[in-house]
Amino acid sequence: MSKGLSVMQNDMADPDIRRFVDAINAAYAEHGAPAGASMATRRAVAERVRAPWREGGPIMAESREIDMGGVRLRLHRPVADAKLPVMLYIHGGGWTLFSIDTHDRLMREYAARAGIAVLGIDYSLSPESKFPVALEECAAALDWIAAEADTLNLDATRVLIGGDSAGANLSVAACLLQRQRGRPLPAAMLLNYGAFAPERTPSYARFGAGDYSLEADEMDAFWASYVDDPGQLADPLVAPLNADLTRLPPAFLAIAECDILADCNDAFASKLEEAGVPTRAVTYRGATHSFLEAVSIAPLAGRALDEQAAWIRDIVAA
């Protein structure tokens, strides 16, 4: 996460997305944790920096927090009484940062635009809780939805999974784990600028210096923090690009053009298609990593959310 303002020439970022990135960078410059700060301090700073971007947006008919065996969940419902489809949404942050609080507006946007319930999960973060702790919690949340759907007036036959960055990784990995265990799979996967493999690609060189949000060295550190042993980085449940993707549910990939993960997302979309998975992959020109969080100021983010919401509505109507 770059800590300085952009003074770039030939800037490829959409102007409104550039405002978002520069505002995030300015906030880190003002509130950033000093070198060597504790993980608790780093997380507190990240929450503070992201706080303005979770405010406003759709008002829900019902929002409630639920405890799932010590894991905090938050359920948003755009209408109170209907038996709604539900999407388990898994926030990003390199498996290390952020929460259902930082991503609260994004979850409410999906609920309102797609007409579904959205359940966010505050999974355990690394480095304190390394692979596969967060993955097991996300898979458990899918089972929990199936068990509690009637109580919560949710439609257990129309469950989706989605997330951004590390959350997109966990979404796919949870599907792989459920498939491996013979458990029911979600109806679809919504994957926003996901981290699907640790290898550096040419997009790291183009966008990894920090001018476009996520930095190359930062992403390397996230991967290293997630696992106990570097050898685990080849595990398909850690790096889904290495997995057999057959029989996974339909996927929508939102790919940010100006993102170090763009090439990896292109490769993952191609592999899904080769595996016979119905796949819609959209590259959003001028978008950076995390661009959907800029919905309050960036029409590009709103258009992307509308496209995704229409896709979700088609999925749950099928």
How would you describe this protein?
This protein has 318 residues and is of the alpha/beta class. The protein has one domain (15-34, 41-317): Alpha/Beta hydrolase fold, catalytic domain (Rossmann fold), CATH 3.40.50. It contains nine helices and eight strands. It has helices at residues 15-31, 39-50, 104-114, 133-152, 166-180, 202-207, 216-226, 262-274, 299-317; strands at 62-68, 71-77, 84-90, 117-122, 154-164, 189-192, 251-258, 279-288. It has an eight-stranded mixed sheet with strand order 1-2-4-3-5-6-7-8, with helices on both faces. Strand 5, helix 5 (166-180) and strand 6 form a beta-alpha-beta unit. Helix 1 (15-31) packs across helix 2, helix 3 (104-114) packs across helix 9 (299-317) and helix 4 packs across helix 5 (166-180). It is globular and about 50 Å long. Mean pLDDT is 96; it is low at 1-6.
